[in-house]
């Protein structure tokens, strides 16, 4: 994320804020948008007080400030769009090149949208600057882009082609995340409350997106209509997890409370494992999502205290004898400690399979590797398994004798996971045994995996 650019944009927003609020209101404004308290100094201007507050704000908190400003301060489009672009580009996104955008526009028929002109204009105004707050000249006559679209697209639809509309919006040059959201909005039920029309646009878009390894895929419903999101279809699985059983201290004692709906419930020993049963969004499962669930289920409104207790509860599930697992878990949270809310949650001791019977009872039909060391749920439905391999993975007799059959069993399990859409990364226990040498290795690995540099580089 371009934090220098983000800070500069927030400096510009301060002009709006100091004009909008009185000096007495500034402390509450700063608290609302996650800025440090402004100086209590009547000898300086409101703008200087806000500037001092922003200067005191560390870089890693700027995204939270920008999010709060966008959510609470009612910025006009020319102010909000640059902030959104910096935030969105700093997260996972799918690239749709200009050629694909233009070819899609050439084939997109707007007639279905013209049956819902108010919805269509509202959608465009939520993503593009239609000049509704300006008094600029657009084209050969006075007016705004909003006025032009009403005239040349809605009232006289033969005037503008879809390609020309996209050109006027700036859709061909927009950053990738904004265009992705535009695609999703074009097939949203709030824009197009007609399922057959939605699916026609999805079918058209997916013909162009297929070459990129992307697609608009239905992910639930909204008001009875299908809801589509843009995903990377060449990696990950086709489904999102329903139940995550993790941080286990023993075999989970669970049962199906509704076999028809695949709903599970804890039968006994609920304190021995955690079950996250909330929907996982298109951004994957972030630490902030897991923490919100923990706070709600534990009824703890103190985020700092809840964060510590959640971390400790998960750490307690790690095998005492596996120093490598403990180091991996600690290092991940250490290197991302200042941006933990924005990174995927690292789930320890995760159950990928579950069988009420034991291996001895199942014999040859027993499922292998029921539980994995760690799981990350990343954007685009990516499921990443991390394993720390001790000698038990390739030896017997407490590490004294090589065991080819045991090693083959581990490799067979890997192949099965990969064929089901998981990404599997294995670390040797020896390379993670020492925390000082493991940190640069893991910092580099997670930086490449998440495409996000750690705050705490060794």
TrEMBL record:
InterPro entries: AbiJ-NTD3. It comes from the Bacteria. Residues 96-261 form the AbiJ-NTD3 domain. This is AbiJ-NTD3 domain-containing protein. It comes from Streptomyces wadayamensis.
């Amino acid at each position: 994320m371009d934090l220098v650019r983000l800070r500069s944009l927030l400096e510009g927003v301060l002009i709006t804020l100091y004009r909008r609020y009185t000096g007495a209101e500034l402390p509450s404004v700063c608290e609302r948008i996650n800025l440090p308290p402004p100086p209590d100094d009547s000898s300086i201007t409101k703008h200087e007080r806000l500037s001092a507050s922003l200067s005191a704000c560390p870089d890693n908190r700027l995204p939270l400030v920008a999010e709060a400003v966008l959510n609470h301060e009612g910025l006009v489009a020319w102010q909000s769009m640059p902030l959104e672009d910096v935030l969105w580009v700093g997260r996972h996104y799918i690239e749709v090149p200009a050629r694909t955008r233009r070819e899609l526009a050439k084939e997109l028929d707007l007639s279905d949208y013209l049956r819902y002109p108010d919805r269509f204009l509202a959608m465009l105004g939520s993503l593009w600057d239609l000049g509704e707050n300006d008094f600029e000249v657009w084209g050969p006559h006075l007016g705004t882009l909003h006025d032009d679209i009403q005239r040349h697209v809605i009232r006289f639809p033969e005037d503008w082609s879809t390609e020309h509309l996209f050109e006027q919006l700036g859709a061909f040059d927009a950053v990738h995340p904004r265009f992705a959201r535009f695609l999703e909005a074009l097939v949203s039920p709030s824009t197009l409350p007609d399922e057959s029309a939605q699916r026609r646009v999805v079918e058209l878009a997916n013909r162009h997106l297929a070459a990129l390894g992307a697609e608009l895929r239905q992910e639930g419903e909204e008001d009875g209509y299908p809801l589509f999101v843009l995903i990377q279809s060449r990696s990950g699985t086709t489904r999102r997890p329903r139940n995550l059983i993790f941080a286990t201290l023993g075999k989970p004692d669970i049962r199906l409370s509704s076999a028809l709906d695949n709903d599970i419930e804890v039968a006994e020993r609920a304190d021995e494992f955690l079950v996250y049963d909330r929907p996982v969004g298109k951004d994957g499962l972030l630490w902030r999502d897991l923490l919100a669930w923990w706070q709600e289920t534990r009824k703890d409104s103190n985020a700092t205290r809840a964060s510590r207790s959640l971390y400790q509860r998960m750490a307690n599930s790690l095998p005492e004898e596996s120093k490598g697992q403990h180091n991996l878990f600690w290092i991940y949270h250490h290197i991302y400690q200042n941006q933990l809310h924005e990174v995927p949650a690292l789930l320890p001791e995760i159950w990928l399979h579950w069988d009420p019977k034991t291996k001895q009872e199942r014999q040859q039909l027993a499922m292998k590797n029921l539980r994995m060391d760690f799981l990350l749920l990343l954007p685009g439905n990516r499921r990443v398994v991390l394993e720390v391999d001790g000698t038990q993975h390739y030896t017997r007799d407490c590490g004294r004798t090589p065991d080819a059959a045991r090693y083959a069993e581990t490799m067979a399990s890997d192949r099965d996971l990969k064929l089901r859409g998981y990404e599997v990364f294995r670390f040797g226990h020896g390379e993670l045994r020492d925390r000082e040498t493991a940190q640069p290795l893991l910092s580099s690995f997670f930086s490449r995996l998440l495409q996000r540099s750690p705050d705490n580089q060794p």
